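**Sequence with structure:**
===
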Amino acid sequence: MPDASGLQAAMDAAYDRAGYDADTDYSRPPVPPLNPDDATWAAALLAARASATAAGPLPASNPTPDPLP
């Protein structure tokens, strides 16, 4: 599989520049609501991100896992 770190960096930069974090309240449930399977996936992803954030940044040799099932 090709290294996607450059793509992730580009996506992160575009997200930051667009200000989506200011427009979206991630503490509230999405509208429309997610289906049960997607809600379970999203909850697990958010818990993993919160855990990773509490532990500090990941080293460059251990990128964040692909969130897709």
Summary: DSSP finds three helices and no strands in the chain. The mean pLDDT is 79.
